[in-house]
Amino acid sequence: MAENTVKKEILLPSERKMSRKEKWDYTLHEMKRNYMCYIMLAPFMLLFLVFTVVPVVMSLPMGFTDFNMASLPKWVGFQNFYTMFLEDDVFIQSIRTTLIFAIFTGPLSYAMSFLLAWLINELHPTLKTIFTLIFYAPSMAGNIYFVWQLIFSGDQYGYLNAFLTELGITSSAIQWLTDGNYVLPCVIIVQLWVSMGAGFLAMRAGFQGIDKSMYEAGAIEGIKNRWQELIYITIPSMGPSLMFAAVMQIVSAFTVDIVGRMLAGFPSTDYKVHTIMTHAFDYGWVRYEMGYSSAVCFVLFVVMLVCNKLVGKLLGKYVD
User: Fold this and answer.
1) How far is 77 from 73, CA to CA, in rounded Å?
2) 75 has which bridge partners?
3) How many angstroms separate the first and last alpha carbons of the chain?
């Protein structure tokens, strides 16, 4: 008499709900199996822990103290936050300026990075390399944005002033980087120019990683034009790249500082380009009020964390 055999379906850990012990055992098993990867990552992770994680963790309790680096921290509770939101007019203005930068150099830069990566992906391989280098160069060339000082120079020899004068649009030089009416738009343009770095490169990699056979299958299934390819194949196929680029753009948009200080001076005219990050720099590295500076950074960290969560929910369906 033949025995009845029952096939037991074996599910991967990602396909079934595991207990906490099973998750821990599975994680240890994977770590042992890939131990060489962890050994190679160890130097970076050690430096990242010491110079990034530890300072971030320390800044939270420091924000509740009065610490000027000349004496021991003194606990003041929520006094720093009270002063920040109710008595510090420059901080309130820095919130407005940061939001303006975030709106223009966040979503706009993200959309431009995606559009440029999409267009470059259609070019010949040689042209792909050339144009990728061109658009990525500003983010890896350090202080190259100083070239914009020549363009926005406030004398008649500045490129923009000379161009406008030649066309007869203006009759005198405009102080682009010191006039409160012009300085913010000028710095936004420069920041937008330098912000398409890691996000743009991630999107280029995302386009390169799409399986070409998916477009052939889409054509068989009824996809008729490039717009439908973009919506139904391209975007869903590069979810991780879109998420990474979004996180990098959020960080870049909310931490605008160095470009404004270098081009418009510190402090800028009427604090027009004074961002939250600039405010933290002012109190941390100029006045050495580390407690107040840590409180400012903590507020910025919370705002960025909330934005990351919102973006995660919007793009989460494409990541898996």
Assistant:
1) 12
2) 65
3) 48
Distance between CA atoms of residues 62 and 75, nearest Å: 9
pLDDT at 46: 92
Q: Is the dihedral of CA 248, 249, 253, 258 positive or negative?
A: positive
Residue pLDDT, tens place only, 25-67: 888 888 888 888 888 888 999 998 998 888 888 888 888 988 8
Do residues 13 and 26 lie in contact, with contact meaning Cβ atoms separated by under 8 Å?
A: yes
- Higher pLDDT: 191 or 221? It is 191
Task: Give the residue from 281, 98, 309 showing the smallest Cα distance to 191.
Answer: 98
* Other C-beta atoms lying within 10 Å of the C-beta of residue 109: 24
The encoded tokens of residue 168 equal 């007869």
> Under the phi-then-psi rule, with left for phi > 0, alpha for psi from -120 to 50, and beta for the rest, what region is 288?
left
**Contacts of 21 by beta carbon, 8 Å cutoff, 6+ apart:** none
Contact 199, 109 (CB under 8 A): yes
